[in-house]
Every structure is written in structure tokens, then in C-alpha cells.
Amino acid sequence: MRSPRFRFLTAAGTIATGAAALTYASYRKDIETARRRITGDRQIIDSTKEPIEFAESGNGPAVLLIHGAGGGFDQGLDLGRAFVGDDYRIIAPSRFGYLGTRLPADASAEAQADAHTRMLDALQLDRVPVIGVSAGAPSAMQLCLRHPEHCSALVLIVPLAWAPERATVNAPSPFFEIVLNTIAASDFLFWTATKVARMALLKTILGTPVEAYWKATLDERQSVDQMLCSILPISKRVAGIRNDSIVSSTLTRYRLEEIQVPTLVISAADDLYATYESGLYTAEQIHDGEFIGFGDGGHLLLGHQAEVRSQVENFLLACRIGPDTALAI
Fold first, then answer.
1. What is the mean pLDDT of the segment spanning 151-166?
2. Residue 104, class by beta-carbon neighbours within 10 Å (0-12 exposed, 13-18 middle, 19+ buried)?
3. What is the pTM of this model?
């Protein structure tokens, strides 16, 4: 007769095996959903250099939405809908190293700006408003500098930008850096982290204090959770994430005084990526620059998303029809 200890161990093993099977089944369901999301709406422009992946949504005047780190055209569409809704035709490219846009030998912000131009030319778009979010800001600024004929306005939201005394983002410990790199290289490990270590990812990936998350509304918290999940499959984005790290570590001062379009810059003081000071400096150096700063909200501007959308919409409307007319409306 088998002992109670043997029966207990057998039952525990059966439970563990079943839990692992259920976990993997849940992962397979989520990763297949993620893979469908990044293939459904994509379009490809066969550029003279490298193919450029993009997607679009909405109706109305075109606006170029340049996504941040961990993104792709899917993040660009989500951000566009959050900032301007469906009243604009959102053009959202995947930047170098993200999803279906390969990482070229020259993956600088300047080269990325040239790629944006090739895409706009292929779509027969002349001057459009440009919205650069987070790590999408360098190529947005370079587009306005190198190809001003394509830009009618510039919006920089929590921008990766240079400043004379740019704050250094607190680097994780070497051990944590290894853990983070390991997670970033594996869809399954990243998926697991979204289930068991969301608050750690909130700080290290999304640059937002935990306090801001818990102060946010239920809808905003659900939006954050969805944003973390939307990074899957991270294996299709990791080359771009690593390139963004290189661009960030080698930033230099751009000729901001030569940007000739109205510019709006938005950030929060507690952004863990330290974009507040550099955003303020950027706005001050642009002739027609305006800065809106919040005291809290982190890199995701939690608690201020409705106001951010209102500010962006009013700014773009003023750029289209003139500030006096916009105020009258």
C-alpha cells in the first residue's frame, strides 16, 4: 500500500503539471493574438533603400505618429487614437528594428527621418503634423530639420531629447540588467513578467512610478495593462529597443533654433525617463515652442490623458486654421 507521503507527492506533481499546461496554453493564446495584431493592418512600402512597414486609421487630415520604444505601427495607431481620435488620418510607421521594418547599418535618428520622408513621398503627402512620442522624438525633430517641407507642426510627448544638464536615468543593478535583457529576448519570459511582475515592468519599461498607477482611474490602469501586453511579441521589437538605447546614449544637441514650425512639448516631472527638463529645454530653444508640464503621471502621463488629448487637438486645430480662429471656435 502506498504511503500518504507518496500519494501527496503524486497529487502535487499532477497539480503542478496541470498548472504548467494551463499556463502555457494561456501564453499560446495571448502570443497568437499578438501575432495576429501585427499582421492584420500592416502595409509595406518598397522603398529605394529598405522596405518600410506602416499602418493607418481614421479619416481627415493626415498626421504622422512616430512611436516610442517597445512599439511598432500597432503602438503608433493606439497612441494616435489616444491623442487625436479618429478625426485624423493617422499614419503610423514601424521605426528601424521594429516588427517588419529591418534595422539598417545606419539606424540613426537622421537616417530614420529620411525614411519617414520616403514613406510620406510614397503616400503623396506633402506637409503633415508630426507627433513624436518618447524615443520617437529624435527622428521627429530631425524630420523637421532635414525635411521641413514635409512638416506643418511638431508635437513631442515625453520626448527623448538632449539638454545641457540632462538628468541621468538611474541604471538598474548589473544583476537586474541581466534579468531584464533575458526577459526582453524571450516572448514567454516577457509574457510571464506581465503576469507576475507588472509593477517592476511599469517602472523599468514604462518609466512610470507605481504610485501614479494606483492613483489612476480603473480605465487608465486597464490601459496600462493592455500597453504592457501590446509589447508582445517582444522578439519582433528587441532590435529596435536596443537601437533606441544606442540613440539615447549618443544624443547630441540638435539645431532646435532652426525648427520653423509651431511646436508643443508635453512631459511630467516624475517621468522616470527624465524627459521633463530636456522637454522644457527643447521647447525653449524652438522659436515657436510651447511647453506643458505636469507634476505627476510618469512617462505615461497617468491622470492627465484627457487633458493631453485636448491640448494636442487644440494645438493641431490652431495650426490648421490659425490661433485666433481656433480660439473663437
1. 94
2. middle
3. 0.88
